[in-house]
Specification:
It contains 15 helices and twelve strands. By secondary structure, it is of the alpha/beta class. The protein starts with 7 loop residues before the first strand and ends with a helix. The C terminus is likely disordered.
């Protein structure tokens, strides 16, 4: 697991050719992301033992990696990313059409039209960044937004229940960014406050531990050409892989959902509902845009969920409601951000505990709202899987790596159980709060536009 830590991240634009690849001193492997101009095509992890690579070897490796993505862009069918397995009524993707792809003349060059297509819907877009006591990371995020090739209508920073005035002071360096204070903690509350104070037809969210690609905004906007799309989610690439914890997160829990476009629709939702639609596989809330109309259709983010409350899953529970209402969610990997994973094991373990806590709480919230029994099946199946994994090596003499793996599973299982307890303690009280919040947010929005 740790044989490639630290790992050098290398971004290669294939339109500039195939250079020889060498490993910088101090690194134990490469994480190569292949691009064609501004279009990400795939990545490959290369251990030190296989380096250096000649131009011919790199060309062969790149072609193996990027062929599925090229096929998904240039062919009418085939090369579609597979849907999650394990549930009935899910129609598999057609087999890849290799013959047609091989017959294309200079297929990479055909991507130039996509790379240079700057058409966007005639809609306004607001950017909302929710933050709490991380001014150094926030500054890095805000500086990346200054390089956007298409400027948003506005940028808002929502300061969520800060323990100091460091974030407010930072904002003096960014007079073009609007500062909004949310006195109550919780990521859902912060997101809802950002929505209430924003004016865009579309609202893009990113996190303070992210830097954005210069084309981020116009790529997100392109995802809304279909009026039935209510949510667009983009690609999140690891910004660095310098520590063991960052490598473990990227290997086990990555935000990267691949390089091929996915449309999540009624077929996906109904086919997966029996076993609990895995909406967390759609993307990441750190790279997300929604239509304001979606809020009108399905409501705001549930304040019981997310960081500062259950731990996470406020975003995926919102996507669940969008799909349940019959709308579309689009995974649009040309909209790219770079995420800085937790740098130490203690922070990673806290994150995994929060993620599992939020996931189990969200499944119960989804069951509460829709009585879709697949959510309870998913809850029990995940608990069973983690428990069996924990018991499997109980009587063996584990290696150091196996002990670390076992500790990770323990933390995830404890978090999962804690999420059930959190839901039972907070469901009734926070349902009332959610209704109150919804009314107050609606009143603020009405006041803003009256």
């Amino acid at each position: 697991m740790n044989s490639m830590v630290p790992c050098q991240i290398l971004h290669l634009d294939l339109s500039a050719g195939f250079p020889a690849v060498h490993l910088e001193p101090g690194y134990q492997g490469l994480y190569v992301v292949f691009w064609w101009r501004n279009i990400p095509l795939g990545h490959r992890k290369i251990p030190e033992s296989l380096l250096p690579l000649s131009e011919a070897q790199l060309t062969d490796l790149a072609l193996q990696t990027i062929t599925p993505t090229i096929g998904s862009y240039l062919l009418d069918h085939g090369f579609n990313p597979p849907l999650p397995k394990g549930c009935r009524n899910v129609i598999p993707a057609p087999p890849p059409d290799f013959a047609t792809l091989q017959s294309l003349d200079r297929p990479l060059a055909l991507l130039d039209q996509i790379a240079t297509d700057r058409r966007v819907p005639d809609e306004t877009i607001s950017v909302v960044i929710c933050t709490r006591d991380r001014p150094e990371q926030l500054e890095q995020c805000l500086r990346s937004l200054q390089s956007l090739t298409v400027a948003p209508t506005e940028i808002l920073v929502v300061d969520s229940a800060p323990r100091s005035d460091a974030t407010r002071k930072l904002m003096a360096q960014f007079p073009q960014v609007r500062y909004v204070l949310e006195s109550q903690p919780g990521l859902s509350r912060a997101r809802n406050t950002g929505i209430a104070h924003s004016c865009g037809d579309l609202i893009a969210f990113t996190d303070d531990d992210v830097v954005v690609h210069p084309d981020w905004i116009w790529r997100l906007m392109q995802g809304f050409h279909n009026p039935n799309v209510m949510v667009v989610l983009g690609l999140a690439i690891a910004a660095e892989l310098e520590t063991e914890s960052q490598w473990i997160f990227e290997s086990r829990h990555s935000f990267n959902r691949g390089y091929r476009t996915r449309v999540f629709d009624a077929q996906f939702f109904e086919g997966m509902r029996y076993c609990g639609a895995p909406v967390w596989e759609l993307g990441a809330g750190a790279n997300m845009a929604i239509r304001r109309k979606a809020i009108e259709q399905v409501g705001e983010f549930d304040p019981r969920l997310g960081a500062g409350a259950s731990g996470c899953s406020e975003d995926s529970e919102f996507w669940y409601r969008v799909l349940a209402a019959g709308w579309l969610c689009l995974y649009h990997p040309t909209a790219v951000v770079y995420h800085y994973h937790r740098q130490d094991m203690e922070s990673l373990q806290q994150q995994m505990y929060a993620y599992m806590r939020g996931n189990s709480a969200a499944l119960l919230v989804q069951f509460e709202k829709y009585r879709h029994w697949g959510n309870l099946r998913r809850l029990l199946a995940t608990f069973k899987e983690r428990t069996l994994s924990l018991l499997k090596g109980l009587f063996k003499n584990p290696t150091a790596e196996q002990r670390a793996e076992r500790r990770t599973v323990e933390i995830e299982l404890l978090g999962y159980l804690a999420g059930v307890g959190f839901y039972l303690r907070n469901s009734a009280r926070n349902s009332a709060i959610a209704l109150s919040d919804g009314k107050s947010q609606a009143e603020r929005s009405l006041h803003r536009y009256s």
